[in-house]
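> call design_seq(struct)
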C-alpha cells in the first residue's frame, strides 16, 4: 500500500506476550542487520529461513555465553542450548513504523473515529453465533450467516424505531429492509 501512497488506518499486531521480555524491548536495526538487547548486548549473527506462510525471515541469535551471564536472563529466555532469539520478518520495517505511529495522539483520534461501529457490529454478530456454524456444508452455513445478519439488521431497525418513536407497520419494515 505504501507503493500506491495509501495510508492504512489499522493497528499493527503486537508481538505475543509469552511472559518474557517482548521483541519490542529490543532495538532492531534492519540496515545494520543487528539487534541490541535491553542490557546493551549486541548480535549480528542470524540465520535465514521461511515462516509458515513461506515468507523469508531472519532469526537473530544471541550467544549462549552472553545470555548466561546476563542478570535478566530469567526475564528474557528459557533457551537451554542457545541465547535469546529474535525473529524478524520481511515486513519488519513497516511494522516498526506502524507501531510507532499508533502511539501518537493523531492516530488514536483517527482510529477511534473509524473503528468502533464496525468492531461493535462484528462483536454482535459473533455474539449471535457467527463464530462457529451449527451446520455442515457451505449452503447451510451461508444460510445461517444470512439469518444472523437479518436478525441483527432487524434488531437495529427496531431499536431506531423505538428511539425515534416511529411506528412502522409490517409492510414498511419489509420495504425498509429491501
Amino acid at each position: 500500500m505504501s507503493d500506491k501512497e495509501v495510508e492504512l488506518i489499522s493497528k499493527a499486531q503486537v508481538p505475543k506476550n509469552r511472559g518474557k521480555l517482548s521483541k519490542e524491548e529490543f532495538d532492531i536495526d534492519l540496515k545494520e542487520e543487528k539487534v541490541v538487547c535491553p542490557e546493551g548486548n549486541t548480535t549480528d549473527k542470524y540465520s535465514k529461513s521461511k515462516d509458515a506462510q513461506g515468507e523469508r525471515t531472519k532469526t537473530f541469535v544471541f550467544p549462549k555465553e552472553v545470555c548466561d551471564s546476563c542478570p535478566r536472563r530469567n526475564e528474557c529466555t528459557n533457551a537451554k542450548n542457545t541465547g535469546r532469539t529474535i525473529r524478524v520478518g520481511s515486513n519488519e520495517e513497516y511494522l516498526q513504523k506502524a507501531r510507532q505511529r499508533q502511539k501518537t495522539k493523531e492516530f488514536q483520534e483517527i482510529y477511534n473515529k473509524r473503528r468502533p461501529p464496525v468492531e461493535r457490529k462484528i462483536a454482535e454478530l459473533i455474539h449471535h453465533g457467527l463464530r462457529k456454524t451449527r451446520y455442515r456444508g457451505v449452503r447451510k452455513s451461508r444460510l445461517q450467516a444470512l439469518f444472523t445478519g437479518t436478525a441483527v439488521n432487524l434488531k437495529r431497525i427496531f431499536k431506531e424505531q423505538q428511539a425515534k418513536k416511529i411506528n412502522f407497520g409490517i409492510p414498511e419494515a419489509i420495504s425498509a429492509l429491501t
